[in-house]
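Table S2 (text version). Query chain:
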Amino acid sequence: MKYEELIILIPCHSLEDFPLYHEGKDADSLLASWTAMWHPALLASAAAAPTWYRADSPPDQLENRLVVAPTVSLSTLPTGFLQRAEDAGAIVVRGKHLRSEIAAEALEPLEAGSGSTQSGPTESRRVDDELVADFFALGYCYLQVQLLTRQMRYASNLDEAYFRGRVVAAAEAAMQGDEKTARERLAACFDVLAAERDHYYPVDVFLLDINLVADNTMGSALADTVRGTTPVNLLLSGGALATMQQHEPETLRRLQQAVSEGRAAIIGGEAVERTLPLLSCESILAELRRGLEVYRSHLGKRPVVYGRRRFGLSPALPQILHKLGFLGALHVSLDRGRVPEGTQVKTRWEGTDGTAIDALARTPLDAAVPETFLKLAVKLGESMDSDHVATICLAHWPGHVSPWYHDLRRVARYTSALGKFVDVETYFQTTESPGHHDRFAADQYRTPHLSLAVERRQADPLSTPMRYWRRRAAWEAAQAMHLLACVISGDGTPLSSDLPGEIDALAESDETGGAALDRRLDEALQQAQRRLVDCLPRRKEAGEPGYLILNPLARVRRIGLELPQLNRLPSLERPVYAAAHTSESKVVVADVPAMGFTWIGPGTSKATREKRPATVMAEECLLRNDLFEVLINATTGGLQSIHEYRARGNRISQQLAYRFGSSAKGRRPDADESDEPSEYSTMAADAVETTIATEAMGEIVARGRLLDGEDQTLATFRQTYRLWRGSRVLLIDMELEPKQEPRHEAWNSYYAARFAWSDEAASLWRGVHQTRQAAESKRFEAPHYIEIESTPELPAVVERFRGTPATQRTTILTGGLPFHRRSDDRMLDCLLIVRGERQRKFRLGVGIDLTHPIHDAVQLLAPDTFSFENAPPATGDSGWLLHIDARNVVATSWEPLIEQGSVTGFRVRLLEAEGRPARFTLSCFRDLASARQLDFQGQPLAECQVAEGKVQLEMSAGEWTEVEARW
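Corresponding structure-token output:
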């Protein structure tokens, strides 16, 4: 049999309304039906390229025609048409979605007509399979170019007669066994299609193919992927690379060869993809450094494009990546969670400090589904229209791709009409830099971590990050005290270097190894403290023993402590702010200089102790100090109000509560942020007792139950309020014993500390990677603090109290608890217990007009560092060793510079934490001679000015920098 025409029936009126909205098997059927008819045997038989007709208006001439009807056309065909076509002598292929099946059914009459037998090869079977696949790819390319022409609002300029003649000539050469001529004529056909596309867009289009690599996708499919000649990109973590070396050494060998030959590029960065939004900047940097070292070790080359499959992007990353030498980044999440899309596919991703890095900021298309390739022309057209660099990004697991993916790759071997495949390194190095910057707010990133932890039944989804932050604070305290000891003694004995990695490793789950880590961390802390204490010179004359209080933080710290071993209360002279007896101990409030010490010894003068009036700080349901007063509700046991003396109105209230959550079935735990009302328990106090009432500190303890609507007990509670004289922070220790477990909906069912304030227009701010960011979302993470900024009624306030600040800042110090939900315009839930949480004791703080909340937040997490000693320091009752004179700058890491066993200076990483520029000095008790700023690879960036032994520094808002200073 010889075909006279190849016909496909499409449910559309023209190519302008080609049905691109289909998915799954319908999309497969449409593409398979179109491309199968480009088999060279069919083209040579008909001596013509395929044609298409409207499905609702098929042709009348049907004899010796091949008619292909995809699944999407069957419902629109005229009733009885298919039977009429068969009766008229047409070969009808209907409702199939595999190209191989369609081609086999269409070729069968040709083979039967040629008189072939099963053992004798037919004319069509003499064509090489690879050449046949190239013809199929030509059919796919032709369709997409035609659709793209219309997507770009152009009329087709293709010389159809010439193109179709070249197609038939190529098919005839193939059928005659002249493969070389067939490929040359095929190439000419692809060139015609490229010229058609260049007519309206004569600029390169780039195709980025990203293979996702995990521990279970490292077999033969990955090996085959890196064996090819077309550039490939592998999204591969350092940990997965180490697994590959252990379990798939042959695949690793092929990958090493592909990387060395430039056929494969690596996208990655970290050794392990951790929950970066919940970690400190130091942990992020350390994880990236560990990862880069793994890449160098296994591949001999590090990645220059950052990316991760698991959610974990944040505004802190651009400057870290830039200072680590990355050229670009993949600003997408291929996991659950929400990442903002860029205005351009290639954009300049700007971080909190203004540092920008080139980034791909559109979610890649799924190369495993047929609809991606059916709609390719639309995506190409959109990118050509709107993007500075037209780019299509595809992502898939190795070997898990749609058949049309292979067609696209074959097209790219012949022509760039649909784009050219490049590796990401070449892409970022050679394409033009986009002129537009995208600066994404922290609220635009929605993390899935809490929901996933509850779904996966992880233990302690809330307290695990809380313990991480406490361990980080303890480590940083040990690190700072170790540095001070090194600076004083000149001895560069190293501190345990593996503890930070262990802290990071247990940031998501510390069920195994957490207790052992805490013991080692405590030993390191005590060792650093003891070493510093021993380095401080002491007075030779005998005296009464006392307490040496150390401050490892780079700011003055007002601290309240119980010092039971003092023989007498200290004198109320600087640095002692307040002192008093309790029934069991002595309590003292003292100021300790930044990176320094304070000596608290027994007082000698009764008159000195009585310089200030002895005002008891606790009464029934009332705590007060010299800055504000706190009222405890006798009925509920909750925080009823906080009143500042200089202004009217309640600043904040608090209760413990259980949120019942939605009873709707099938709701995803992270479904939305709807304002759907939810019931809460009520708080009922059984007792409210004043337990400490002194001139230095007051304490009230409330005990009671959380009740449901039928007065059934959901949990018992104990809430302790403690307030020190001179402190702007009310400490709240909470203990809950649930009797009802929360539902599985992590963000809708939980026990929480509920806070309420009066100003509906108040703006919220939060600490993100230790920097101040707006908190406008209803669900967010804030492991350090949440600041409620409101404007009081100024006319009345100013008239009565001159000098009252224009804004009031009430700060919730979250103590490492990361997850919070704003349930109303003036209400906030700090989540304490969700399903799977075993921690029952929590500490929060409420700060009134804290000027630099990050310092108070760190102080809440940091351990107390003091010891009972026999003699005071020789230099005086207090002193500082290192100092930063900008309160909006925090030190995140200290490290001694050790050369030939001697300490010659130190390195410090400094972070601007409040979103405003800083100009300041860094000074030491020893004069500094030189200093320079480094990037995070240890390379110098700039020399710092040094005047009178002090380093002069400037930092932009949100900047994180490393400074190396020498004596």
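Notes on Table S2: The two ends are 94 Å apart (CA to CA). The first strand starts at residue 5 and ends at 10.
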